[in-house]
Amino acid sequence: GQNIDQPTEMTATEGAIVQINCTYQTSGFNGLFWYQQHAGEAPTFLSYNVLDGLEEKGRFSSFLSRSKGYSYLLLKELQMKDSASYLCAVMDSNYQLIWGAGTKLIIKP
Amino acid sequence: EAQVTQNPRYLITVTGKKLTVTCSQNMNHEYMSWYRQDPGLGLRQIYYSMNVEVTDKGDVPEGYKVSRKEKRNFPLILESPSPNQTSLYFCASSLMEGGNEQFFGPGTRLTVL
What we know:
The complex is a heterodimer of chains A (109) and B (113). With 109 residues, chain A is mainly beta. Chain A is 0% helix and 57% strand.
């Protein structure tokens, strides 16, 4: 079966760095997405990786290793507004998105 | 402004009373999808559509219907709602090519009593 695993919850301190991991087992691979979702709101797109390596976008970076079925989202200089859930999703061979359950990130002052 | 709209945003109804949640996008996207989101379960796909008159079941289609008569609209129909369909529903759209992000509507919080 297809499976996406990410930690349920993480806590970090304002100004620090946090890494949210995602491992996947899917039928084929056509890219991995990270989305941010604030409580009660719609998910919003953060990043897309299809090749191995690190993609940097301001305070957020996303890494992919296809051979290991592994990705992480790195958030630097954490701000209180970064408190949200972070969703990992993989596009399979049929171009369907398989979603992880999300990681709730709590930022403490 | 490029967006996906859903209506209603909030709905409380009773078991068995047919309802429709509308979804519309103004980005000329071919692909549209409906998800439900429940605590601890993440997003689960109900139905999706790759173009007009083309719809397919997702992971949890039971109890739902959809139609795609026009490119911009993708309504979700619950013919006979039941309490286990109480959930937060999201409509999303994207271009068909792989790697394109999905744009989400604001969500519809449905309670079935």
